[in-house]
Design a protein that fits this description.
Layout: H1 4-22, E1 27-42, E2 55-69, E3 73-84, E4 98-107, E5 112-119, E6 141-150, E7 153-161, E8 180-191, E9 194-206, E10 214-228, E11 233-245, E12 251-264, E13 269-278, E14 290-291, H2 314-317, E15 323-333, E16 338-349, E17 354-356, E18 362-364, E19 368-380, E20 385-396, H3 398-404, E21 413-421, E22 424-428
Parallel strand pairs: 12-14
Antiparallel strand pairs: 1-2, 1-21, 1-22, 2-3, 3-4, 4-5, 5-6, 6-7, 7-8, 8-9, 9-10, 10-11, 11-12, 12-13, 13-15, 15-16, 16-19, 17-18, 19-20, 20-21
Amino acid sequence: MFSLIQIHKIGILIIGFLLLSEISDCQFVLSGELRPRFEYRDGYKQLMNENENPALINTQRSRLNIAYKNQNISTRFSFQDVRTWGETTTKQDIPGIHLIEAWLELFFNPHLSLKIGRQVLKYDDQRLLASTNWNNISSSHDVTLLKFNLNNFHTHLGLAYNNDMEKLTESYYPVKYYKALGYLWLSKSINENLNISFIDIIDGNQKDGSDDVIYFRKTFGSNVLFNFTDIRLKTGGNFYIQKGKGKTGTELDAYFYSANVGKYITDKLDVKIGIDYYSGNDGLDTSSLVNRAFNKLYGSGHSFCGYMDYFTSVDTNTKGGGLMDIYLTTKYTFSDKFLFQPYIHYFNLANNVAIINQHDELIAIDKYLGTEVDLTIKYLFSEVTQIDFGYSFMFATKSMETIKSGNKNGLPQFAWIMITIKPEFFRKD
């Protein structure tokens, strides 16, 4: 719920842009988003125990977007209110505005620009930097971004340094987020069939309680995409290496790779098979002081490894064992408005997760964790309204119990309905 003061300030901002748009050659767009979602959680994210009851929840995201652009500058403000229905009583007035975007981009020439402020970062398949749009709050970063584009070659250099308040000297940063971030992204379309990109991310996490010790982690690698339109085949993958030190100062030596191939069988049906592999630690090697569990940084948690979200943070969700996800998906387009997409995920640990048995021996659990099936339907109700339906279920194993707790018996399942409305209230070109 927006407070009266917050609504007043947003109103003044809108009026200011309206007046500016009338006296200048520019584009001004005022738009919104309303996204309610109903969820039935019966084994979502973790296995249920026998004495637990499924959860029924309703959530809602409401956004107001203001965008302005002319030959020299571009700017965007996005305000949102995120809530679970019933979290505040009816007669309480509790402000809950969140600034998801507030940035200004300066265009020095057609090829070079500088974008400063709070902004959403998403690159390639959003494996490392993502908008995390399934999460109602979503993700944004306070960053300075230098952009260069020329002849299908794109270069982005991003830099950020965080503090929890205005201060005169550096001190401990208590916010559970990176202290510093720097990244370089290069992308080149070789031809109509091939695109290659490279990304190098360095993020620094401050040591707990320290004013000046920062542990730096380096993640770098490449993404390749082939698109053979003549035979209607798409294939690609990425490979990332992770070095440096993690948030606790532990030495890192991890990697990730993925590969997939998709084929359009008909104009309406296409099939894709792929593998995602996150390296992990060997739980039987008790002498190792190196962390080999790959961390996905600030990437998407819901788009990969199943919609039941058992592995949104693979390194911690697998007790450091890593994950191999072999998946198969088909997509059938019934019409311009109706699409059906089933997924099948076959989950295995990438390395050994160890337990102590009844004889006080250290043994590895079975690597097979379970199989998940995701069924989704997308329906375009109108030009501004989309309705999404989803139902997922999982066949879990005893090993899944070990890493996620709960009871594997029964059928873990997750169902949801989401309506997304994106109206455009005003446009001036």
